[in-house]
């Protein structure tokens, strides 16, 4: 993220990282662990060529606190917060970009604010598959790691799972830094294991009906990375299920990489999405 181009805007008490571009439409970036996690850094400046770019931390908002007990309601509340932030920034319409867990919120925005969301970019969306046995068994593996008092073990496996073998062999210092950032800046990594497993299961459960998906009017691009090292998703199969339910959508599979390809191969990411974003940013 180019620090010189970003300011903190206060929207009803929510600190929003904002790169404002005069006359440009608004693009809101959503992921659950939004603060100081590094995922957006390699692509922020390019996104800011076409949009006013905004991102804010979702974890401590009321909607996030509901997800453990009432996930569908929690995701709906977080989507409403995105729309309220857009209004507070002076944008009656906006574009939404969800990564990983943030895709639940982006999709909910596209459903609940169909008249306001101009385009939707989903990278590695979660979705409940017809047969989830493989996924739930892999979630048990994730939980076993998380039950270890040394949460760095889980953090390392979470980070490593998102990169290719070649990247891990030559850039392990990046892994070390991402783990340190997550242990320091993401309170979620320190919650109790029961809350963790409820959260993981909520991300992999459908909270949007097929009828609701049919209401999405936003042009939608879905990117799915090939490597699902956890076997717990997000996966190509999940992305295909989402794509089949959104009329104005296109799916592109990114081969040979995992979920952190925004960091590993930002050039490949931008090659895939920039034509879509250019067209979206110029649409009336």
What structural class results from the helix and strand content? Answer: alpha/beta
Based on DSSP secondary structure assignment, what is the total number of beta strands?
8
- How are the strands ordered across the major sheet? 1-2-4-3-5-6-7-8
Distance between the termini: 28 Å
What gyration radius follows from the Cα positions, in whole Å? 18 Å
Which sequence of SSEs, written as H and E, runs from N to C? Answer: EEEHEHHEHEHHHHHHEHEHH
> In the residues, how many domains can be counted?
1
Strand percentage? 15-25%
Helical fraction equals 40-55%
- Weakly predicted, low-confidence segments: none
What oligomeric state do these chains adopt?
single chain
Structure report:
- By secondary structure, the protein is α/β, with parallel strands linked by helices.
- The chain has one domain (about 5-130, about 205-280): Alpha/Beta hydrolase fold, catalytic domain (Rossmann fold, 3-Layer(aba) Sandwich).
- The chain is built from 13 helices and 8 strands.
- The protein has helices at about 45-50, 60-65, 70-90, 100-110, 135-145, 150-160, 165-170, 170-185, 195-205, 210-215, 235-245, 260-265, 265-280, and strands at about 5-10, 15-20, 25-30, 50-55, 95-100, 115-125, 220-225, 250-255.
- It has an 8-stranded mixed beta sheet with strand order 1-2-4-3-5-6-7-8, with helices on both faces.
- α3 (about 70-90) crosses α4.
- It is globular and about 50 Å long.
- The model has no long low-confidence stretch (mean pLDDT about 90).
